[in-house]
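Interim report to the steering committee. The following record documents the input for DNA-binding MarR family transcriptional regulator (164 residues).
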Amino acid sequence: MIPSDDAKLTAFGLLMEVHAGLVGKMTPAFTAAGLSGVDFETLIRLARSPERQLRMSDLAAQTSLSTSGVTRVVDRLEREGLVRRVACASDRRASYATLTDAGVERLEVVVPRHLEDIETWFTGLLSPAQLETLLDTLRILRDVVRPCATAGAEVPGEVTRPRS
């Protein structure tokens, strides 16, 4: 028998509902800027990384993409002039995805609306204490289920916790 009152099922179901709802609320801003959600995720990860670049393997680890998936996204963004690929000087097998000035300009168009959407549909609904608790909780979960999610990046405001 499937339990109808199991808190674990409820918690996961609520998380999925919130994720789907937030994606639906955020998508119009991305679309208006000529971006998909994965395009935005790729560009914002690069923008928030040292020197606006990441090794392709680190970019794949940080996003929801496989290495071949991130290659396709970077290829498309490169054709649009938003990203360029730079060979790694010390490792011929590696390359970096680097955000271009045009990529920064595209983000400057979409980020203000995206921040408004985040405030309206997410963080603005929480008290400062609730938001801090949520951030702490999400980092705990992320570090377990996606341990490479910050590969190659310095994460502002985050303290690296020793893994046990």
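Confidence is low (pLDDT under 50) at residues 159-164. The committee is asked to note this result when reviewing the revised timeline.
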